[in-house]
Amino acid sequence: METVQNIKLETFPLCPSREESEAMKGVFIILIVMAHNTLLIPTSSPLQNYFYQFHYFSFFILPFLYPRSSLTLQRTINYFIRFYVPYFWFFLVTYLAYSVVWLRNGFDLIQFLSVFWRGEISQIKQVTGFHFLWFLPAFFIFSLLRDIYSTSGKIVRILLFSISILVHFSAYLGLPSYAQLRLWIPLGIVQSLFLFPMGVISVSILRYVPRFRLRADHESIHRIYAGCLALLVFAILSFDFMENPGLGAATYSEEIRNILLAVFFFTLIYIFRREFSRIRLLRVLGKYSLEIYLFHLFIYNGLMYLVHVSGWTESLFMGLIILCATLLLTLILILILQRSKVLQKILFPKELIHFKRVLQ
Questions:
Q1: What is the pLDDT of residues 195-233, one digit of tens each?
Q2: Which of 26, 237, 358, 360 is the most core-located residue (most Cβ within 10 A)?
């Protein structure tokens, strides 16, 4: 077995195995479903704001660890198919249910196309009743930027990273704020740029932090030390957040803290990815994380409606039951959909050839 002295803080290779990647995404999606559960984490509470500092960021950090891929026209089309097809279906259904049926505003084609094209969080919420669909157009742009960054020279990398950092600190420099930029610039570009620095910083930490020199032959000892270090930094940053809670940072130091909070949470999960990968449930949840993300709110709201009409006590214990039931029922729904290859390719095509086969 390779000794600890020859291991660089679990950074070679950086790319996790498929099982490890799925398990990590399983952890992330559980936190997202948990953060949407108002019995466990009340809406707009400091605890919810705290969760939103790191749980969904991790999905945007993980791709930085994957092998470099040149951005080609075919790859761009596949990205578009993968993210915009489910975005269209879920946007259409939620728009019809909320704006047309619930609010009785009628179908406004211009409004539909405008909000769909812009992909801005608050506008999506206004016409669909949900925030969550912003993730898909933002991840499409993010995927393009990530490929450009990973295969470009130093000048392009520095420029892209500098622009993404500027999005974080624009308000402090007298420039339009992040919220304003989101409204002005379409396609989720600003959202993807906002999430970009976390990936760059995480990879830099994992790649360049000096290795620990320990008198041990087992790399698990090494991971424990590295994990404790990441946990310590994450705990310190978390304590600072609880002292100054909120999604909007008021100072430069708070903005830096918010970025690092996401970085060190991801680093902690990454270090123990092998341990997580041994848990089958995490691997399954991670494998279907996108589908769970898109379906779970419908299941959750249905369960909460049952709680309200039945008169059951809305307690922390009930919140845990709702959390487990949401994950279980969503997963069952997805596995049922998996049995229909045609329906799967209509809702969640992976690439252009899958979409073509359905159309044919």
A1: 999 999 998 888 766 554 444 445 666 677 778 888 888
A2: 26
DSSP string, 147-210: HHHHHS-HHHHHHHHHHHHHHHHTGGGTSPPHHHHHHHS-TTHHHHHHHHHHHHHHHHHHHHSP
Contact residues for 355 (Cβ-Cβ < 8 A; gap 6+): 81, 85, 345, 349
Of residues 239 and 129, the one with the higher pLDDT is 129
Mean pLDDT of 266-283: 92
- Give the contacts of 167 (CB within 8 A, at least 6 positions apart): 178, 181, 190, 193, 194
Q: What angle do CA 87, 90, 93 make, to 5 degrees?
A: 140
Of the candidates 297, 351, 309, 313, the residue with the CA atom closest to the CA atom of residue 128 = 297
**Contact in structure between 4 and 217 (CB atoms under 8 Å):** yes
pTM: 0.88
Q: Which residues lie below 8 Å from residue 113, measured CB to CB, with a gap of 6+?
A: none
Tell me the CB-side half-sphere exposure of residue 347, using CA atoms within 13 A.
14
60, 149 contact by CB (below 8 A): no
